[in-house]
């Protein structure tokens, strides 16, 4: 009886998540100033395993005249952590619906993945993010809710794409991570610590903290940029660690960027798995300490912005877990456009 009730409760929670995402994003779209689509894929770095694919659609709502953008429903839970900006500064509310999937090293392997390999896993989520921007620093708060397991529809997504591309068919999605409601709260800040006299180069410092069942981590890093018309775009660099967007260029500007971030991972749903999954297959070993490297190009024209970046989330990994290394390397492409 208890198991049946729990199963029904999980399904009800998943339906509620879907309704929340659809209804909230619908109103966000009506008020949005920008829309972006971000694609993460390991084929950008020559692989088709580990962090296989991620696709994220975001709606950006900015201030209108003297009226500031309102913080979204979920992100209000973190509003207490923002400094009082008074009448200064501007803010952007960002709502995102996304799907992330991972697979073992060999998706044609006829049996279950070995204990030291990544599982089959997917995450379908809704994220509510608010960025508050000052001339020399920007704050970010974010709350994410989602589901892993078959209700993430990662299996259907991969089979659909591989069917179009006539690629290898994965064998064992029936052994993916169990259905589980997951969440994360995140707080971050980026500082513009130096700007060249010409305004064509700057140096950014950033720090962020995340807690939740999706992952818990803390990190700090820097980014160097060189380009044109970069004054307002520096704040978007605070979004990189969320895997929902690239740093983008605005105002018909462009810039090259490179950065690094040192961090510590306390837990991660894809690397640790669920309790039931660990009981079946064992726990994968990985380095909790991480060094993220990123480099790319952002370019904007008219009402559009395009960014491409190559990322390695754990460049210092010296463990023998090849699967963890495959999870951390991927390329990401973001197309954003401004609505009239």
Structure description:
With 340 residues, the chain is α+β, with helices and mostly antiparallel strands. It is built from five helices and twelve strands. The chain has one domain: Outer membrane protein (Lipocalin), CATH 2.40.128. Helices cover 18% and strands 44% of the residues. A twelve-stranded antiparallel β-barrel has the order 1-2-3-4-5-6-7-8-9-10-11-12.
Give the SSE order as H and E letters.
HEEEEEHEEEEHHEEHE
The CATH first-level class comes to: Mainly Beta
**How much β-strand is present in the residues?**
35-45%
Query: CATH superfamily, please?
Result: Outer membrane protein
* Count of distinct structural domains: 1
Distance between the termini: 54 Å
Runs in which pLDDT lies below 50 for 5 or more consecutive residues are 5-10, 12-16, 18-30
Write the layout of secondary structure elements.
Blueprint: H1 2-31, E1 34-41, E2 50-61, E3 90-103, E4 121-133, E5 137-148, H2 154-165, E6 180-195, E7 201-212, E8 215-228, E9 254-268, H3 269-272, H4 275-281, E10 289-301, E11 304-312, H5 322-328, E12 329-338
Q: What is shown here, in short?
A:
The chain is an alpha+beta fold. The chain has five helices and twelve strands.
List keywords for this structure.
340 residues, alpha+beta, Lipocalin, 44% strand
């Amino acid at each position: 009886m208890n198991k049946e009730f729990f199963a029904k409760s999980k399904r009800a929670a998943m339906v509620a998540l879907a309704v929340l995402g659809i209804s909230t994003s619908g109103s966000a779209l009506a008020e949005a100033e920008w829309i972006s689509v971000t694609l993460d894929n390991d084929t950008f770095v020559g692989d088709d395993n580990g962090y296989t694919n991620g696709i994220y659609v975001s709606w950006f709502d900015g201030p209108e005249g003297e009226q500031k953008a309102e913080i979204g429903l979920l992100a209000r839970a973190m509003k207490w952590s923002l400094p009082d900006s008074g009448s200064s500064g501007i803010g952007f509310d960002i709502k995102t619906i996304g799907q992330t999937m991972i697979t073992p090293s060999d998706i044609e392997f006829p049996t279950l993945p070995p204990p030291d390999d990544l599982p089959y896993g997917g995450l379908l989520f809704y994220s509510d993010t608010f960025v508050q921007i000052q001339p020399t620093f920007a704050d970010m708060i974010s709350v994410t809710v989602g589901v892993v397991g078959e209700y993430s529809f990662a299996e259907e997504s991969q089979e659909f794409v591989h069917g179009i591309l006539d690629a290898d068919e994965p064998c064992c999605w029936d052994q993916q991570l169990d259905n589980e409601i997951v969440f994360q709260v995140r707080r971050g800040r980026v500082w513009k610590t130096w700007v060249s006299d010409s305004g064509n180069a700057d140096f950014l410092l950033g720090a962020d903290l995340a807690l939740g069942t999706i992952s818990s981590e803390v990190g700090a890093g820097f980014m160097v940029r060189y380009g044109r018309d970069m004054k307002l775009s520096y704040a978007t660099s605070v979004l990189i660690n969320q895997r929902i967007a690239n740093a983008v260029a605005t105002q018909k500007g462009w810039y090259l960027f490179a950065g690094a971030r040192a961090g510590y991972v306390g837990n991660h749903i894809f690397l640790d798995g669920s309790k039931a999954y660990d009981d079946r297959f064992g726990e994968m070993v990985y380095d909790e300490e991480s060094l993220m490297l990123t480099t790319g190009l952002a370019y904007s024209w008219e009402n559009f912005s395009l960014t491409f970046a190559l990322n390695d989330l754990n460049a210092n990994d010296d463990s023998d877990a090849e699967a963890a290394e495959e999870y951390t390397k991927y390329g990401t492409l973001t197309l954003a456009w401004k609505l009239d």
